[in-house]
């Protein structure tokens, strides 16, 4: 089946919103979502005429009705609250369909209070940053981390480790994966699927723990793989989680809206719930920093496709190229120098510096150290 079986409507909505972005390549999106161009343009036409309701398999009642009474407005507000009990009045106001006179958010608070409704798990806003920074376009920076881990209700199934990757510009969650562990192999597999769907970012930032960083000297194997793909790597300062503030905020929202409200007996059950919640977060949930628009309104896939085969590393003429042996060492003039086990089997470059006898060490385009051979003729 071409659309995701777990969330067919959300897949169609994500497709049409991405396809309507400036410069979007509809044919490429068709291949990504595994649908024919004929089907894709049919849903685009229906969306333009009928909005989200046009994406359903069966017709729905029109979302707009200019003549609705205040009773119907209150009914709509209560329906939205019942569907999204963790969202405040500003978000509910942004979700009111066209055709409703949108009241002030304080009026919505009054309506909810009058009907005995209460927003669940109101977040603590005392630590919300008043000065925000974001990159100017999608895919310039992705923030990546694990949201800790938690036990499954079936203790024999182990624990779930939610892996999250968030686009810095749009807050679009390109990845929310229920992982059984936090190993490099698992992360690389999940990232491969993510890159195939959304393309490659310019840079990824993560913390200094495993598997992102090497516990010893040099690069980790995950860093080496990302660098081979042409992705720059950054790390947050130790004990400064605010460096990845958007992903940390995403974690709090995930915990409040899903993890604190549900239990899961298997990794597959976690993933099913994650997919549904991620679709809502990306496609529906208004975001204050985005003018109460959902993240998909500011996101588009990267123009850099994932290469199924990675070519050899190319260095500059005049570089001395050395292969890193199984011991994590490379040879220079019959001597061995340790560079790190993460680079085993890779080729590095020794590039002369301004000081005679000192070489700058490079892997791909990243400078990874220096070699002083002045006392080793």
> What name does the CATH topology of the largest domain carry?
Nucleotidyltransferase, domain 5
CATH superfamily of the largest domain: Ribonuclease H-like superfamily/Ribonuclease H
Report the average pLDDT across residues.
85
Q: Please report the number of helical segments.
A: 10
DSSP strand tally:
12
End-to-end distance: 66 Å
> Which word captures the global form?
elongated
Low-confidence stretches: 124-131
Beta-strand portion reads 15-25%
Largest sheet report: 6 strands, mixed
Helix content: 25-40%
Describe the structure.
The chain is built from ten helices and twelve strands. It is an alpha+beta fold and 377 residues long. Strands 1, 2, 3, 4, 5 and 6 form a six-stranded mixed sheet that branches. Strands 7-10-11-12 form a four-stranded antiparallel sheet, with no helix packed on it. It has a two-stranded antiparallel ribbon with strand order 8-9. β2 (150-151) and β3 form a beta hairpin. α1 runs parallel beside α10 (267-283).
């Amino acid at each position: 089946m071409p659309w995701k079986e777990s969330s067919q409507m959300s897949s169609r909505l994500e497709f049409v919103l991405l396809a309507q972005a400036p410069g979007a390549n509809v044919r490429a999106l068709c291949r990504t979502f595994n649908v024919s161009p004929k089907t894709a343009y049919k849903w685009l036409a229906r969306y333009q005429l009928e909005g989200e309701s046009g994406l359903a398999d069966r017709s729905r009642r029109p979302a707009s009705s200019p003549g609705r009474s205040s009773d119907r407005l209150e009914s709509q507000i209560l329906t939205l609250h019942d569907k999204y009990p963790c969202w405040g009045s500003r978000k509910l106001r942004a979700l009111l369909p066209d055709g409703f006179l949108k009241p002030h958010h304080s009026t919505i608070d009054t309506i909810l209070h009058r009907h005995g409704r209460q927003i669940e798990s109101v977040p603590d806003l005392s630590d919300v940053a008043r000065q925000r920074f974001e990159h100017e376009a999608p895919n310039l920076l992705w923030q990546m981390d694990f949201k800790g881990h938690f036990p499954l209700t079936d203790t024999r199934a182990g624990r779930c480790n939610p892996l999250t990757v968030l686009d810095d510009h749009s807050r679009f969650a390109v990845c929310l994966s229920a992982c059984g562990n936090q190993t490099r192999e698992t992360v690389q597999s999940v990232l491969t699927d993510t890159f195939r769907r959304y393309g490659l970012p310019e840079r990824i930032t993560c913390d200094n723990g495993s598997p992102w960083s090497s516990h010893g000297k040099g690069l980790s194997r995950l860093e080496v793989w990302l660098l081979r793909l042409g992705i720059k790597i950054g790390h947050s300062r130790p004990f400064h989680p605010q460096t990845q503030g958007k992903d940390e905020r995403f974690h709090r929202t995930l915990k409040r809206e899903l993890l604190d409200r549900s239990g899961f007996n298997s990794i597959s059950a976690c993933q099913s719930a994650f997919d549904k919640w991620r679709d809502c977060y990306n496609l529906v949930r208004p975001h204050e920093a985005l003018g109460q628009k959902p993240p998909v309104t500011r996101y588009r896939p990267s123009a850099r496709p994932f290469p199924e085969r990675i070519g050899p590393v190319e260095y500059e003429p005049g570089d001395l190229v050395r292969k890193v042996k199984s011991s994590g060492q490379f040879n220079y003039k019959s001597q061995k120098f340790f560079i790190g086990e993460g680079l085993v089997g890779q080729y590095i470059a020794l590039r002369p510096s301004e000081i005679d006898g000192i070489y700058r060490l490079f892997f791909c385009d990243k400078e990874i150290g220096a070699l002083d051979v002045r006392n080793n003729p």
